[in-house]
User: Fold this.
Amino acid sequence: MNKKSYLPFIRIVKISERSGKDTIKIRLVAFALALAAGGLFTLFLGYNPLELYGTIISGAFRSKMAFQATIRFMVPLLMSSLGVVLAFKMKFWNIGAEGQIIAGAVCASYFALFHDTWPHFLLLLVMFIAGALGGGLWGLIPAYFKSKFDTNETLFTLMLNYIALHVITYLRDGPWKDPGSSGFPKIARFAPNAQLDKVLGVHFGWIIALLLVVLVFIYLKYTKHGYEISVVGESKSTARYAGMNVKKIILRTMFISGSICGITGMIQAAGSDMTLASSVAGGVGFTAIIVSWLAYLNPFGILLVSFLFSILEKGSSVMQSTYGLSTYFASVLQGIILFFILGCEFFIRYKFVLGKKGGR
Amino acid sequence: MFVKFLSAAVFAGTPLLFGTTGEIMNEKAGHLNLGVEGMMAMGACAGFMAGFFYDSIIIALLAAFLAGMLGALIYALLTITFMANQNVTGLTLSIFGVGICNFVGEFMLLNSPSNTLKLPEHITAQISNLNIPGLSTVPVFGPLLFQYNIFVYLAALIALICGIYYNHTKTGLNVRAIGENPGAADAAGIKVTKLKYINLLVGGGICGLGGAYCSMIINGGVWMNNPVNGQGWIAVALVIFASWKPYRAIFGSFIFGAFSILKYYFPKTIISLPNAFYDMLPFIITALVLVITSIRKSKENQQPASCGVNYYREER
Assistant:
């Protein structure tokens, strides 16, 4: 062999398999490092990170009210994460959860605002269906173009987010404007008849969310549909050779994914905001992507991660009132955590090899 | 009136042009970076704060560029070296960047005596619109060509240089080869990793400059939270509208700038449309462009083939 043959100083080598124990260890180390990095950042700003983290955790649990608020943060995050996970399993980059949440909320709000004399149970049921249909159809648009023309779904769903957002501002400034409001235009508060009932102090959305965890888990793991989704996700050609109708699977899955997000919007509007606000999604659709990725697309993992994230959200609002620090700390820390987890995946699958020793 | 409209369109399109050029540099190297919004936000924060403390446009621009680059470095490290998923990494970068921008902004507001942050006089003069005696006052051409601030010229210049780089230099063509087929480029002796890093970092820096425009110009030198406000996302979409060509990005940005200010200029006497419709327009048009380009599938106007797929040398 030529003596001068080029060998880089550091090489990347694939590891055949790491044990499950090692994998968990690496991920925990990454998580700890992320918290340390976030702490370092606050230390740099002149705060004691341990105190801040302490405030966040105690802030989320300090009272029954605080814990209920944490759960209220968690419901939309958990549900929309469950929604996007279906699309992600299929490697359909649905970053339009935000828009689908809004679409669902808008459709449900129509009934809440204009048919609030209907019997309570019927009204909520109709709102629920309207939310699911609205979100589902909003999700179906990019899916249709993806399956038909291979239109880039990442950007398409993103654009639909903004279009949906401006639909709300249109309704707020125009047809649905509350004539009774002075100052900034807003949409009227829902009548009590159109609001979700509370169970244990929190609107019953949390029960639906928990049910969905189980349903999505079963759907993905034990049904034919779930199997088809994972095959399409692995390889569309394989799916096609196996005789699957890829187009139909994409459309169906995105409809379900959008529906779950749409129901999230309905629950958020009727359970939490009690009106249709332009902040009904409020970035939850984006955070949902981080959540589902951190949970490795596992519904029970999503339950855990979204719980952790809502502690972070609620805790950082307490941190704001205590230290004056912005609640954006939550998104900074969420970002850092995912950066580290994304980075650590590499060390699970590959390793660096130093020096010149040949062979793999 | 029309001249005023055109010049306002240029002003509104400038941050988009920075973002679009930066993203083109990413995508040409094969990386679909959804973190433009985040890198712009980081640049916005760093640029404004540096300008606020050092009262110098050079330092502000440098800080914005470096901050954008820092965001890009996180992305590059994770996607090039650690081969993490590009979509997720980019999205996280956006959430992280916007978060840190607003977090630091609020932190500075909290620690400022009057609870406001306003750029000092010296730098305000430096970033105000040009006034070249004899040229700026020429009717029509004056306002259209010689009455902008330094950012506008910088943005156009960067886009032009970027166009020359990708069309007429060897390195630029090499980068394009990487974007199309990194394996083949590697086999041809092109240093894939190094060129990817350079392009992503410089692209991120350019995005940072666009962010500085948002925070320093748009709100008249007063710090407002969330200065970038979705412009980075439009920039990502504009790349498609410009079909990955820096020259077209210049026109595309100004066209989108025009859309974003249309509601202030469109004669209400002809058709009176709700404001929300105008706000929606850029996004609707982008969505249409997406659909039309995907239907037409012209060979020239396609995304670089390897865009979104990480390159692992040992697997080629």
Q: What stands out?
A: Chain B touches chain A through 52 residues (CB under 8 Å). The mean pLDDT of chain B is 87. DSSP finds 13 helices and no strands in chain B.
